Amino acid sequence: MTSFYYEVCLLKSPLANLTYKSDDEIEPGTLVEVPLRNRKNNSPAVVVEKVEKPTFKCVEIAEITHKYYDSKMLKTAKFIALYYVCSLGEALSIYTPFYEHKEEMETKEFISNIDLSNKQQEAYEFLQNNRAGLLFANTGSGKTEIYIKTIEKHLNNDKQALLLMPEISLTPQMQKRLEEVFGDYVAIWHSKVSKKKKEKIIDDLLCGKVKLIAGARSSLFLPFSNLGLIVVDEEHDESYKSDQKPRFHTKDLSLYISKTQNIQIILGSATPSSASFHK
Description:
The chain is α/β, with parallel strands linked by helices. Helices cover 30% and strands 23% of the residues. It folds into 2 domains: 4-92, GIY-YIG endonuclease, CATH 3.40.1440; 118-278, Rossmann fold, CATH 3.40.50. The strands form 2 sheets. Strands 6-11-10-7-9-8 form a 6-stranded parallel sheet, with helices on both faces. Strands 2-1-4-3-5 form a 5-stranded antiparallel sheet.
């Protein structure tokens, strides 16, 4: 029987990629279980690529799951590993693997009924004409209305949207405001959401029942299939920086994802960082 050889990365491990073999053909990005010497239980790993038969003896992949990381996740994780100096396994561990879902084709028109002022309309039109833009305005000047109008436009074009906010800003009032316009198509994502609820949100996102995620920095790594907009509110906030490996900056990663995947991005703040202001 023909054996195939694969380079895999161990999730949450600082180790370099290892080579395993299998009698099955496995797609890159597939979540697998592999044995490690001196460990009783198998370890979760991700298939990176198929390789030539090495000169050394290889151990068999123990289990092939039906969960996977898509090509966009793999590409971004490789960038994270290189830019933030960590292993690919550590970089991929911040993503959520998923099962293949069939998206439900349901057309829904969202109407916000928001009337923008002249200044807001001017800012809104500028943002629509630029893939990346900084919305620099004082607190209470109406940035949220511009966010909602932009989100509304993308959702009505059958796209998904992500509204990133510091966890402290994800208040019941903000949730209610978004639900008034987007109803059950919006989901809130942060550290206090239960594991069971998070699993349902991911299923609904994959099926098309959720089109807008408002969440803390970890929501950037959810399995979006058709993301059209990223909004980074309070882009200067220090909570967007991860203090554990991989030590990424959510704003900078959002800009990278926006550029490589041709996604519109809006950075918003009353006190923007000097780096964002001068860009």
